[in-house]
What we know:
The chain is of the alpha/beta class and 236 residues long. The chain is built from ten helices and five strands.
Amino acid sequence: AVERSIPQIEPLVDQIVNKLKDGGRLFYLGAGTSGRLGIVDASECPPTFGVSPDLVVGLIAGGDTAIRNAVEFAEDNVAQGWKDLEGFQVSEKDVVIGIAASGTTPYVISALQECNNKGIITGCITCNEGSPLAKTAKYPIEVIVGPEFVTGSSRMKAGTAQKLVLNMISTSVMIKLGRVKGNRMVDMQLSNNKLVERGIKMIMNEINVDYAKAEKLLSKHKSVRNAIEAYGNKEN
């Protein structure tokens, strides 16, 4: 189902890349499981690709409380989605992707409608064909997974499909922005020993030096990319 949606994913990725290159941001907007998935993807971009936490932003109906606990009727608030975006001074420089398995969530649809009115590029990820959300978004992505094993539990097939699409969007965008070298996370944050070790091995493989030399370079330059580039420029 996700593979069939690739022709819809690609043009949205291109729009996001263009906007981010011009100083824009990417927003994910959802409720419940969909909102949480957007927040997960957004929160993984800084450590994986070394970008600012402000570049990809996840918003959920009901605010941060809703990340862990259901907030009653939050998804039915037709005004709050746009208010949440306004809190970040969203503008036509940005891209907003609404995430809703059903494609009927008022919090998301109304926000995208307002974005359209303001000239902001909109996309969506939904699992129902021809939904109100898909009709609202300028770049809809419809992943038709069929009925859930537990009827209506869209955290299952729909949630899994949405997560796959989010992975594809953010990874493709970051590759196109040059945040990956080959298949290596050269801009990752060195936030634990495992990642430091991975960084050392990347440097060893990339410039053909021993462990001690790679460790010294990483310690000095604080990033895999900087260490590789410095060695190439003979600044080591």
